[in-house]
Amino acid sequence: MTKCFDMTFNFDFREIVTSGMILFAVIDIIGSIPIIIGLRNKVGHIQSEKASIVATLIMISFLFIGEEILNLIGIDVNSFAVAGAFILFFLAIEMILGISLYKDDEPESASIVPIAFPLIAGAGTMTSLLSLRAEFHVENIIIAIFINIIFVYIVLKSSKRIEYILGSNGINVIRKVFGVILLAIAVKLFAANINQLF
Length: 198
Hints:
Layout: H1 13-27, H2 33-43, H3 48-72, H4 77-97, H5 112-120, H6 123-133, H7 138-157, H8 159-194
């Protein structure tokens, strides 16, 4: 009996959950609700579907092409993962302490570019994707991306209702909880990759 296909998929529920939680914390769509509300009030409409699709394409493309870009400039994935651990660490500190170490300019409109790129698939997300790839299987990360994008789409569609239900205190509590989780993940990511550099 011969095998027609020799394609192995390494689906792992734990990897999907961990990747999903990291991306959820980094994207921080709940914490971005006030910005989304402000944009909606300013321009009247947010293109939720287009923003979600474009953000998905950006993240998946970077997941595959990002490593090639690193190889082109002579940086290995483990080095990038350690750098990513530092980024995640500072993002976690921002979320836990409620401070702003670095802040981009607020987008001026609710078109695809400001929502999909700076807000959803920003620098922190890109760094996290390559850091995750150093530790997890790609198929699990892709599933985690889709799960997060579905959640992002729901939030974009019902941001006013979510803000009303959670209130500012509820949003702050969620940010702090995921900040602590992200901090622990940053430490683990650093410990798992630092030994590969020496």
